[in-house]
Amino acid sequence: MRSRSASAVAGIAAIALTATACSGDGSEGGDGGAAEGTLVIWSDPERADAIQSAAAAFAEANGIEVDVQGLTFDDIQGDLLNAHQAGNAPDVFIGAHDWTGNLVRNGAVSPVELTGDQAGAWTRPPSRRSPTTGSSSASRTRRRTSS
Question: CA triplet 136, 137, 143: central angle to 5 degrees?
Fold first, then answer.
């Protein structure tokens, strides 16, 4: 469980960093009801503690305020669409991957476009290919039977 939380925290920190780097002059995007210059993150209660810990470290390291707001997971998608229409959506939110189509159709999310330099700054995860077969899936061994 601990490594799962660490992965979630690292992911949130990366997303938050991207959100602040891509936010420009603050003329677009919402503030989720927080003061200008505050990074707003919506999360469900199960992830809020891990996110809050990462957010506090991120805020201190970058000299900004981070406001982690807990919402019921089932309410986040609908609340996000309503907040987007009202002009006060959060900067970062935790949601299910299958929400993407609906959120894009409604203009609530859009792809993050990185310059070559920005994209080059991201590290790639190590390959999970088998060193012996080069296959990305687990190797299967066939049992030999005697006849």
Answer: 135
